[in-house]
C-alpha cells in the first residue's frame, strides 16, 4: 500500500486554525497574516473552521446533557441509598447482630450495629460524590465545546468579512478592524 502524502495546505490550515482558536487577541495581526496567504490556503482555513464548528454542533453535547447527567446522578444516588440501605446492605451488615431466637438486635452490640450502618451511609455518600463529579465534568466539557465552536464561527466570520471588506493594504485592514465593534472582539 502506498501512503498518501498530506496536503500542505491542509496542514497549514489546521495549524492556523489551532493558533487562532486559542483566543481573539491581536485580531488585526491575525487577519493581516490570513490576507497574505494564498487563495487556496485561505479557502482551506475557512473550510477547516467550518468543519470544526460543524463537528462541535450546539446541542450535540450541551448543557442539557449535563443537566440530564445531574438528574440521573441524583436518581441513581437515591435509588442506591434505598436499595443498599433497605434491601441488600442493611440485612447483610446487620444480620450477624440479630439474635435468631428473638429477632431483635442483641443488646450487647449496638455499637457494632451503628458502625455497620455508618459504613453503609459512607459508601452511599462516596457513590453520590462520584456521580456529582461526573456530572460536573460533563458540564465543563460541554461548556468548553460550546466555547470552541463559538471561536471557530467567530474566526470564520471575521476572515470572510476581511476578505470582502478590505484588500491587502494594511491600512485598510486596520480601518476595517476599527469599524468592528470592540465588544465583539474582546469576547
Mean pLDDT: 70
Order of helices and strands: HHHHHHH
Sketch the major β-sheet: none
Unreliable segments of 5+ consecutive residues: 181-187
Q: Can you count the beta strands? A: 0
Tell me the overall shape: rod-shaped
The helix-and-strand class reads: mainly alpha
The level of helicity is: over 70%
The first-to-last residue Cα distance is 48 Å
Description:
With 187 residues, the chain is mostly helical. The protein has a domain at 63-142. 77% of the residues lie in helices and 0% in strands. The protein has 7 helices and no strands. It has helices at 8-21, 27-36, 39-55, 63-94, 110-165, 170-179, 182-186. The chain crosses the membrane at residues 61-86, 120-141. Keywords: Membrane, Transmembrane, Transmembrane helix.
Task: Give short descriptive properties of this protein.
membrane; 187 residues; disordered C terminus; transmembrane; mainly alpha; transmembrane helix; 0% strand; single chain
Layout of helices and strands:
Layout: H1 8-21, H2 27-36, H3 39-55, H4 63-94, H5 110-165, H6 170-179, H7 182-186
Give a quick summary of the entry:
The protein is built from seven helices and no strands. By secondary structure, it is mainly α. Residues 181-187 have low confidence and may be disordered.
